[in-house]
């Protein structure tokens, strides 16, 4: 998907919906990295329950699936968020009813710009090609994501 030079919130929502659809996912989040407070700030979401919106507005680096992907600068995957005991997912994440989930950092070279996450209702192991494809999509939008 080609984004305009100064994407609107509608543009980001369309990008997220298109990305989620490509992977057969029902939820998605896109966060922008704010270096001032070291948090990921929500830019777009789809399929997230209203009660979780306050929680996902601002995510500290290293917290939750998106925060872990941003901190590690690599994909973070959970085959089944509902039964995961790794401690990566934040409390309350199970309310999404998502099982298979994947978050990747949005990188412009080495510079962290944000995080992109998608989720499926069923348990699912994303393969390496899918992880690389989501990383590539994230890299394509990196420069447009930062102001």
UniProtKB/TrEMBL annotation:
It comes from Prosthecobacter algae. It comes from the Bacteria. Residues 18-145 form the GAF domain. InterPro entries: GAF, GAF-like_dom_sf. This is GAF domain-containing protein. Gene3D superfamilies: 3.30.450.40. SUPFAM superfamilies: GAF domain-like.
